[in-house]
Amino acid sequence: MLNAHPTGELTEPNASQRFEPRDRESFFAAQTRNRRATWRISVLCVLAATLMGIPLALIITPLLYGVALIIADAVNLFSPLPPEFWRQASEVPHFGRVAFDWLLQQKAADPQALAIGAAVMLLPGILFSLALWAAVNLIFRRSGTGGAVLALRAREPSPSELKELQLVDVVQEMAIAAGLPAPQVMLIDASGANAGIIGASPEDARLIVSRRLIEDLSRDELEGAVAHLIGSIGNGDLHISMRITAVFEACGLLVAVMNAPFGPQSRRILWQIVRYSLIRREGDPQEAALVADLLTRSAGLEVDDIDRFFDATGKKSRLRSIRNFIFFPIFFTNTAVKLLLWFFSWAVLGPLMGLLWHTRQYLADASAVQLTRDPDGLARALQKLNEEPGEIPGGNWASHLFLVRPRPSGSTFAANTQQRQMLAQAWAASATAASASMPGASSNFAAISRQLPELMRAAVAGDERAAARLRSLYQSVSAADPEFAAQFPNPDDLIAARKGDFEAISRLRAARPNPVALGQAGMQKDHTPSSPEAPSLVAFHASLKRRLKRLALLGAHIDPVARDRKAGIVILVFSLLLGPFALLAILLFLLLIAVMTLASLTFVVIWLAVIHKLFALAGSPSA
Amino acid sequence: MLISPVIIGIIVAALVLLWLIAVFNGLVALRNRVQNAWAQIDVQLKRRHDLIPNLVETVRGYMQHERSVFDAVTEARAQAIVAGSNIPVRTAAESALSGALGKLFAVAENYPQLLAVENFQILQEELTSTENRIAYARQCYNDEVMKYNTTQSTFPRNLFATLLGFSPASMFAGMDADRAEVQVRL
Fold first, then answer.
1. How many angstroms away from the CA of B142 is the closest CA of chain A?
2. Spatial separation of the C-alpha atoms in residues A541 and A358, rounded to whole Å
3. Contacts of A174 in chain B (CB under 8 A)
4. What's the sign of the alpha-carbon dihedral A184, A187, A193, A198?
5. Alpha carbon of B140: minimum distance to chain A alpha carbons (Å)
6. What is d(CA A423, CA A485) in angstroms, rounded to the nearest whole number?
């Protein structure tokens, strides 16, 4: 703080803040700092995964033993196994009991027996989960994400169009600056402005850019945005992202394993995973399709075979209820696993991975500054892109790989820049034409797209002024651009439909062609948001404010965002008030998980004992 | 059980050897990156040379009266190609080429019909991009050289770097012609 203005500081705090020399940081220093932060958080992530692994292993291990026992029993039926084997096998539950007694009843135990007990109870489950994760990782790495990119309906940029040529050139420039091979550029004609990288490795990387982005950004902003993405590729974020995704996919697959005996869908996915991870074939389209399926639809987590299995609403026969009774324990196991996975991915592992991803984003921002030497370009690009929801239809699974968080747009209509301006003008004009009590003249497209549905609702509910305003808006829009106006319902029809005019209703139905908006809405429904960030407390995207602050440290000339003290205090008070309750809820939840786990364990043990006995009965006459 | 000093010595020696191998491989990777970055500058300069005949061909019809402008461009290009790997001459020629191209685009502003031709716009974009690429390739080269030199000269690698046969690379110092104009008095 060398030249802080003493007078300016008193009279105009904002102005002094603006010209105050900041403690600048070089981009190399920023990169080193963020790399270290990534390491620290990844250690925490591993710890959290271990923490989650313990109860998970407790649930899964008995099932694995159960499968082994059933197989051994079946083999025993045909060719009796040596008694040595059975003696060894009976040791297993003994060691498990030692560990449990120590844990629950504080019974003193021999440390060696305790260690063996813990290993016996945990190791098979842990190894199984790790194997699943490794298999998913392997498949992702080998077959790349080309199949999943198809779901985005991306196209190659055309070299004869200036803007698209410019994009390709900027990508080449940035790749040269980073000393990397240039990634393939794909364009999507989505209504949101956003860009991201998709791929399993730097060689497989594709740069996905929406057409709106190259229209909205100037060349230096585009350079900043592309430099962020290329820097991200150079920093190895794709590998990290794939590992994170593989963790969530493996969790989903664990549920699929539970369901495997009950449903063909789970069996099919598991069989494919096993097959593709063991058999090595280059460029297998089926494998690519599987990866695409895993990524875009989150195959594992969606499976609900088990619910269908127990769902006896259709047929009610005695056989069915007996079957349900026999398999009842698996229901506990399933619920315990699901609760556990949900809780940990929402409150522990997910947030940690989100924080990890923040450090990668700051790192990529610093890399972008290294490549362009122009922090302002990226800062302005981020500001512009954050103003609107940069939705990428079909890209939910990769949303963390995009420059800014793709928020689902509240608007149901697509508009280009000119149409936006025209709509904003019409909106302002209609506000003055109606009364002053209406929401004011806002030139912000996002605000309009939020307020427009409200206005429609008010008009339909019978608000005369709202109806008048809607009519004037509709008239001015359809006068300027009839094609664009076709995306909106005719206000007269809306009001008539409310009164029960069937003709108006059918007209409204026919006049909703808008394939873009409808298509997007449809996509969202059948593609459940399966990105790793979906079930997490902390978003995977760092907040704009923090990113801009860091860019300002790197030399960007942006107005520091004024800190909202009031909101901070309100949040503090709320968190102090609600904190204890939240803590209590978390504790209760953990207790619930523990009870479920124990119940599952007990039921499975009883179930196995019964099965073992049955086998013994079946075996004894022949022996 | 006692571990004899011999075994400890062997373990330490093995660790040092492993570390040396890691240092050597790391430095080789960095050196390759430096060489690759250097080659990239050449690739981009070549790309600019290849674009120029096309540009002159497009412009010729519209700018009959500005012969001297695009003659300067062609001549500078020819000189740069002749200079080949003679670095000081080449640098001067490339710098002259940059200047001539800048002049050509500045003069082209006076010919609205030319600016409207789509082919010209695309060529202009290509050449702008190539200029950028050359600049970024140089920047990348300097970044890589910095990384390479820092890695070599920090302790304790500096004790072994020369032994392993590595020497610091020199940075790209910028255009001599450009630098002559700037005189800083201290």
1. 10
2. 6
3. 136
4. negative
5. 5
6. 10
Interchain CB contact of A169 with B (< 8 Å): yes
State the pLDDT at residue A344.
83
Residue A31 sits at the chain B interface (C-beta within 8 Å): no
Task: Select the residue from A158, A176, A370, A374 to test the B interface by mutation, using most B Cβ atoms within 10 A.
Answer: A176
CB spacing of A174 vs B136 below 8 angstroms? yes
> How is residue A537 annotated by DSSP?
S
**Contacting A residues, span 147-166, partner chain B, CB-CB under 8 Å:** 160, 162, 165-166
Find residue A209's DSSP bridge partners: A187, A195
pLDDT of residue A409: 56
Q: Structure tokens of A541?
A: 């995207």
* CA dihedral over A515, A517, A518, A520, signed as positive or negative: positive
B138 to chain A, any CB pair closer than 8 A? The answer is no
What's the confidence (pLDDT) of residue B140?
92
- Poorest-confidence range of A251-255, A547-551, B116-120, B175-179? B175-179
Supply the pLDDT for residue A5: 40
Closest residue to A173, CB basis, from B118, B121, B133: B133
Contact A166 B126 (CB under 8 A): no
Q: Where is pLDDT greater, at B159 or A537?
A: B159
Tell me the helix, strand and coil percentages in chain A, rounded to 5: 70, 5, 25
- Kindly list the averaged pLDDT for each block of 10 residues, start to end, along chain A of length 623: 38 44 77 93 90 84 83 80 76 73 70 78 86 84 70 81 90 92 88 84 86 88 94 91 83 75 72 73 63 56 55 60 72 79 83 91 94 91 83 74 74 57 73 53 60 73 76 78 69 72 70 41 36 62 86 81 75 88 89 85 82 77 47
B139 vs A466, more confident:
B139
* pLDDT confidence of residue B53: 86
Instruction: Output the 3-class SS for A282-345.
Output: CCCHHHHHHHHHHHHHCHHHHCCHHHHHHCCCCCCCHHHHHHHHHCHHHHHHHHHHHHHHHHHH
Alpha carbons within 13 angstroms on the beta-carbon side of residue A296 total: 24
Q: What is the pLDDT of residue A2?
A: 39
Contact assignment for B140 to A166 by CB distance below 8 Å: no
Q: Nearest chain B Cα to A172, which residue?
A: B133
How far is the alpha carbon of B50 from chain A, nearest alpha carbon, in Å?
A: 16
Contact B140 A178 (CB under 8 A): yes
CB A181 within 8 A of CB B144: no
What local confidence, expressed as pLDDT, does residue A487 receive? 66
Quote the pLDDT of residue A611: 81
Query: For A72-99, what is the HEC assignment?
Result: HHHHHHHCCCCHHHHHHHHHHHHHHHHH
d(CA A525, CA A104): 46
HSE-up of residue B3 (Cα within 13 Å, Cβ side): 5
Other Cβ atoms less than 10 A from the Cβ of A559: the count is 10
Q: Helices A491-498 and A502-510: crossing angle, nearest 10°? A: 140
Task: Give the DSSP letter of residue A210.
Answer: E
> Any chain A CB within 8 A of the CB of B41?
no
Task: Say whether residue B143 is in contact with chain A using an 8 A CB cutoff.
Answer: yes
Q: What is the pLDDT of residue A432?
A: 64
The DSSP code sequence of B40-105 is HHHHHHHHHHHHHHHHHHHHHTT-GGGHHHHHHHHHHHHHHHHHTT-HHHHHHHHHHHHHHHHHHH
The ipTM, to two decimals, is: 0.86
Q: Does residue B110 belong to the interface with chain A, where contact is any CB pair within 8 Å?
A: no
- C-alpha to C-alpha distance for B28 and B15, rounded to whole angstroms: 20
CB contact under 8 A, A170 and B140: no
